[in-house]
Amino acid sequence: MSFQEKSNLVMTVIIALVYGAYFAAVMPPALSEGPSMEQVGPYLFGAVVFLVIGGVVAHILVAMAAPKESDEADERDKLIEMRADARSSYVLGAAALLALGLGLTEQHLFWVVHMILGGLVASELVKGVLRAIDYRMGV
């Protein structure tokens, strides 16, 4: 497995865990008690901190495992990145349209913000999965 493939796998798992925990903590109260942007701040801050720290630590560990590979990106890696970006952009576009619809129908700001955030997270997860498939199956 190349450094880029390991990096992709690690970040996809970290994003899934961090934002899975975030949405699991934020959504049940919003659905039962009503949405509140004031209660979301600490959770969102924590998610960003865990994402950054987890990503840095994971990349250090992956780079330490194979230091010679850590700065080598070849044409295949670039092609896989471009293909995954192009295909995952449809998820982000759909989420943006849904967020626009929520805004136009004057839904609570909480739902608009979380539709945008959910779209960003879903797009990154789709991109990570598509990259993993391309690395395993070949392009």
Describe it for me?
The chain has 139 residues and is mainly alpha-helical. It has one domain (3-137). It is built from 4 helices and no strands. Helix 1 runs antiparallel to helix 4 and helix 3 runs antiparallel to helix 4. The model has no long low-confidence stretch (mean pLDDT 91).
Tell the overall outline: flat
Task: Count all strands and give the number.
Answer: 0
Low-confidence segments, given as residue ranges, are none
Q: Termini, distance in Å? A: 15 Å
Number of domains: 1
Arithmetic mean of pLDDT: 91
Tell me the strand percentage band: under 5%
Number of helices: 4
Structural class: mainly alpha
Please give the radius of gyration in angstroms.
17 Å
* Biggest pleated sheet: none
Order of helices and strands: HHHH
How are the secondary structure elements laid out?
Blueprint: H1 3-33, H2 41-65, H3 75-104, H4 109-137
Helix pairs in contact: 1-2, 1-4, 3-4
In short:
This protein has 139 residues and is an all-alpha fold. The protein is 83% helix and 0% strand.
Which key terms come to mind for this protein?
139 residues, mainly alpha, flat
